[in-house]
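Below is the record:
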Amino acid sequence: MAPAKAMLLIAGLGGGAAAAAAAVAALPPARAPLALRALARRPLAAAASAAAPRAAPRASALAATPARRVVFLGTPAVAAHSLEMLLDAARPHAPDSTFEVVAVVSQPPAPAGRKKVLTNSPVHALADARGVRVLTPKSARDGAFLDELEAMGIDLCVTAAYGCFLPARFLAIPSCGTLNIHPSLLPRWRGAAPVQRTLEAGDAVTGVTVLFTVLKMDAGPIVRQRTLPLRGDEQCPELLRNLFEIGCHELLDCLPDVWSGEAAARARAQDEGAATTAPKLSKDEALGSFAAQSATQLHNAVRAFAEWPGTLVSLSVGGEPTDVKLCRTRLPASDAAAGAARTRALTLDGAALVAVCADGSVLHIEELQVAGRRRVDARAFWNGLQGKDELSWLR
């Protein structure tokens, strides 16, 4: 390499070039070109390394970003489980989260138990335990309550079994809208008791929907939906909890799209023609009848009304009318039920009491409860008859 070219190359290497030039000049001519090439590579690589920005840890970068402000609305125990999942996924519990729960809204304390002691809702109790601010307006239309929400700078509201109508002024407050976790495959079973009506109807498939809340009940555009096949033996409490848990996972998964606006842009409208309603339960629905209902109808009522109001039948126990709550039932295989003798008498078959309904269909009763007594299995009930030789249904 010519001395002039060598000096030009060295000059382009930045600081320390003079010392490097002196060292190279002292080398034998045969080794000088190799030394120059090595010298050229080393400073350029170092410069490139110094210029490249170092990636900050993800948690640190997100922690420096202002968290989205979320308000949760819910009341019963099943909603408390959803709140717990939300809090566990939020700051400060999850430092790399994109949001924080700044407040919880629940229905006011209500009398509970035999002594009617004023008691906070399960959601309220959990929020207190986790140190989250709680608001308990008598109505979501309350002006002072809405003023307070407007002052919070809310990005999103999340509702899960809150139990109150949300007015237009409320819905206008969160910048990203209000998302509702609804335990049915909307538009099927809009209303207050979707899981109960799903089980009562004997649906083979159910699911959960995450949707934007609008003024019309459960009619907003759908963001996420998950289906869940049913076995046929699920009861309301377990299914309700399962669906809300699935729904909360779906909601958390779609939050990045909510913040970006993609969720609102892609949400699909519901088919109004396919809508069905799930009206609130009444105490009168507890009355079961072997005379008027089939085994399938009774079984589905037991599943649907397991938590409240229950399914009550009237039995004759040793000639005495006795009100009994059916707690757990099952349907026999179709071939086993074929040709059952028409009788009002109940018999014990293995671990179940066998009842034949007026239409000839057969119901197996596995657990039951006499009014004022504890819940027992069928064999314990049978053994407790104490020589009473007659057990039959009256209604």
Remarks:
- The chain has three domains: 3-44, 65-274, 283-393.
